[in-house]
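We now fix the convention by which a protein and its fold are recorded. Here is one such record, which you should read through line by line:

>
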Amino acid sequence: MEDIAGFLGSHPPFDAVDADELARLAAVTETEVTPRGKAIFAQGAGPVESVWMVRSGSVEVIHDGRVLDLLGPGELFGQGSMISGLPTGFEARAAQDTVCYRIPADVIRPLLARPDVLQFVARSIVNRTVPAAALPEEQVRVATLIRTPPLLCQGTEPIREAARRMTEEGASAALVPLPGSFGIVTDRDLRRRVIVPGLSPDAPVSSIMTAPAFTVTADRLGGDVLLDMLERNVHHIPVLSAAGQVLGVVDDGDLVAAEGRKPLLLRRAIALAESPAELATAAAGLNPVIIALHDARVTAEQVTAVRSVVLDALTRRLVELAVRDAGPPPVPFTWFALGSLARREAAPSSDVDSALAWDGTVPGDAAGYFGRVTRAVDEGLRACGISPDVHGASAANPIFARSRASWRRAARSLSEDPTQDKALILVSVLADSRPVWSSGGDTAGGLWEGQPTPELLRLLARFALSFRPPTGFLRDFVVEHSGERRGQLDLKHGGMIPIVDLARWAGMAAGMASASTRERLRAAEAAGTMDSAEAQTLTEAFGFIFSLRLDHQVEQLRRGSVPDDFIDPKTLNPLARSYLREAFRAVASVQANLSAELSLGVRWG
C-alpha cells in the first residue's frame, strides 16, 4: 500500500495531494498486469469508470489502427472518457508486459474540484488528441526522453540479483561501470543469454553484458539516436552528460512512440532473413514504412536517412548470404555504398550505387569469386525491388571492383591530374563513398584518401556549376518543352544536384570528404571555405527542395506508381511555388558568386 501511495504521489496530478488523500487513493487502487499485445480497453468502449496510471512497462494509444502515443511509467490514461461520460476515443494496448494502477472514478472525481488537478487532467486530455508525431521526437534532445534514473550494478553482481533489481525498478536495461566506459545488460540479454542457453543465474552479470556500450551525449537529437539504433541494431543506448556522467538509458520506445518503431522491426526482419527470398519479403515493408514516417511528419532528411540505413542492412545481409553460398573469400574485402546512399540521402527514386575493394593481391580465380558475390547481391537487390545503378556504378562492374591499392592509385592520379577523362565524375564517386560491410569487420573510412590539390578543387568548383537551377528569366520556371516530361520540372537535376555538388566541393576544401550534404555545408562554414550566409542559404534551400521531392515521391508510392523527380509546377500551391522559386534563385546566386571568383582567380590564384 505504501508503495502504491509513494508511486502515485511522485507523479502528477497526485503529487499535489496530501498524505491522507494518497492513502485513501492507494487503499482502493487495484494493480492490473497486462501481457504484451493485449488491450486494456478497446476504442469505443465504455464510458470507463476508472483511470489508469502506468507503473511499469508501456501502453500504446491506438486510434483507428494507428499508434498515436506510447505511455510510460507515471503517465495517466482513461481520464477523457471517465470525465466526459463518452465512449473511449482510442484503444489502450500493452506494448510490453505492463503493470498499471487502476483507480476508481468515484475516488478520483472529487479531486477534480481542485484547480491544479483539473488543470493537469484537462491539459492531458487536450494533448492526447494530438498525434505524438506532431511534435516529432527527432526534434527533441535525447536527454529530455529519459524516463528513469540509470540502474547501475557491479560486474561481479550475480545475474539473479541484477534481474531482480531490473524487475523491481521497471528497468529494461542495467549498466555496469567500467574504466572509461560502461557495459550494458538488457532484458533481451537475460532471455537470450541466460534463459535459453541455461547459464547459471549465479554467474556474474559481466558474463552476459555487452561492453563497451555505445553511448550518446545528452545534446543529441532523438532522431539521430534512432538512426544510431537502426545502424547498430541495438534497442538501448546510455545517455551521458558533457562531463561523462551517465544520466539514464533510452530505448526505442522512448525515441519513437508510433510509426518510427516500424524501421526497427524491419531492420530486425532483415537481420533474421536466411535467403534472398526472405529478404525480398522483408524488403516489401520498406515503402510502407517510408509512407508511414512521412505521414507522421518526420522530416524528409530523417526519412531518407532511415531508408538509407535500412538499405545498408539489406545490402549487408545480401553480401553475407552471397559469401555464405560462395565460400570464404580468397582475400579480405569491403563493400562500399556510393552516391546518395553513402550520403544517407537515398530517396524512394534513388538506385543503389556500390563498389568493392579487396586487400592485397588476389589469386587468379578471385575474379570469378567476386563476380559471383557481386552478381548475387545485384540480383538480390532487384528481387527486393531495389535497382542497382543504371549507369554501371555497381560492384558487379569490374571498374568498381578492384584492390584497395588500385583505388588509392586512382584517387592519387585524379588529384594530381584532374583534367583526365571523367576525372571529376570519378572524384565524386570516390568522395561519396562509405563502407557497409567488411569480411574483416573493419568498416572505417571511405575510398577517397588525402587532401585534394588546389587544381582539383578549382575544377570541382567548376563542376559544381554544371547543373543550373531552372529559374527562368521572368516569373516562370524552365520546364521540359517536349516528350513525356513536357511541362514538368526536374527537382533532382535542377535543385538537388547543384547543392550536392557545391557542398562536395566546399566540404572537400574543408577537409571533409565522405559526409552528408548538410554536414559538408556545416564543415565548409566552420572552415571558412564557404561564406556563412551562403552555407545557410544552401542548407535552407536543400531542406525545402528535399522535402518537396519526398512529398512528391511518397504520393507516387501511395498510388503504386514508380517514384521520379518530375513535378508539374502548376500543381503546387502559390506559397510552395514561391518558396521553390526563391530556393532556385538562392542556389543560382551562390553559383554566380562562385563563377565570379573562379573567373578572377580568387582562392586558386
About this structure: Residues 125-138 have pLDDT under 50 and may be disordered.
